[in-house]
Amino acid sequence: MNKRFEATNSWQEVLDNPVLQNLPYKIELNEWEKIVMSPASNWYGYIQVELSGVLLRLFKSGRVISECSIQTAKGVKVADVGWCSKNTR
What we know:
Blueprint: H1 11-16, E1 25-29, E2 35-39, H2 42-58, E3 62-72, E4 75-85
Antiparallel strand pairs: 1-2, 3-4
């Protein structure tokens, strides 16, 4: 198998892989560190914008993030919309 398409074992490798850039998919890692891709759609983009607006109105002291990567015990998941304090990077 061509190394470009083998599953990667770290989130940083996924972020750095040029083959995985600008795809119309949401990319995550599962608990076995395999890449999982879900198709993106205009409807989900619309919902993300609406949820972002709600979070901005409710929580003025933090930051709203779209496509927010979250390290979990089952791999890296990507929330459509997330909120964090202004001190979080």
